[in-house]
Amino acid sequence: MSDGKKRRMSMLDSMAGAAPAAPMMANRALRSARDAVDTHRIWDLDPESITDDRSADRLDPEDVADLRSSIEAVGQTVPILVRRDPTRPDRYLLVYGRRRLEAVRGSQHVGKVRAMIAAMDDRAAVMAQASENTGRRDLSFIEKALFAQELLDTDFGTQAEVAEVLNLTKSAISMALSVSRGVGRDLASAIGPAHGIGRPRWEALAKDLQTFALPVPELIELAMHVRAHAAPDVADPSVAAFDAVSLRLRKALMVPTQRRDARKLPLGMDSALRLTRTKDGLRIDLRTKDQELADWLLEHAGPALEELHAHYKRR
Question: SUPFAM superfamilies of this UniProt entry (predicted)?
Answer without folding.
Answer: KorB DNA-binding domain-like (SSF109709), ParB/Sulfiredoxin (SSF110849)
